[in-house]
User: Fold this.
Amino acid sequence: MKYHFIQHCAAQRSDLPIEGLCQYLDVTRSGYYKWLNPPPDRRRHEDDQLGEVIEAEFYKHHQAYGSPRMCDRLRQLGRHHGRRRVGRLMTERGLFARKKKRFVVTTKADPTKQPAPNVLNREFTADAPNRKWVSDITVIPTDEGDLYLATTMDLWSRMIVGWAIRETMAEDLVQQAFDMAVQRRWPNPGLLHHSDQGSQYTANGFRSQLRERHVIESNSRKGNVWDNAAKESFFSSLEMELLRKKRFKTKAEAIQEVFIYIEIFYNRQRIHSTLGGRSPAEFEALNVVRGN
Assistant:
């Protein structure tokens, strides 16, 4: 443990003298360097052990982590290893993160409705919870027919705060996702809600729901998916980490797997680079803000 501590300190501060650290911890410098540069057979044994840990974490986290996020995950486990070493071991074992697929827009605009201005304006960060929510819809294929998933994300923590899954893309789909988010978060007036110009979001009923909560409405520009890139990123992750891996025989199976993905994996386990290598739940626990 002392050697690990010295290595960690030296990695954080290049100006720290190794000899001074060794003296402070009452170990020899030669012993430290012998530990740092072990014989080839011992290094191979350590690599094999570390590789087994990496492989287990790789599949546990839906094959989503490349070497940077794998290093973050290992640090959460108390293991501090360089990105180059982790990347080498992942390559040796054929562990490559799945590449994201471009999100396909499923909603259609209602030409009779005037969209709201793009108030969000691609500002995908927030300084507190319940300041900016983004929402969208995607399709979940099953052997029994398609399902439609609407989700609402808080841009502060990337937490999926509300979601609903139904057999049609009717207006109540987005209303139910929004209702779940409200029941969980109880936002104060002034919340910004952003979506595309899909007819579900510009419908009179949903807009009335936003007005009742004193929510500021924002819509993407027509045909511009990058105006809602944060939500596109979530659906791309869902596609890569769940939908490509499984073919759902029934709608009930799909609903169960989507629940597990969102509530157990994505919100509570999945590491986000935008959150400093933390999951949304961990980020929120470490950054508690009283009030909204």
About this structure: The mean pLDDT is 84.
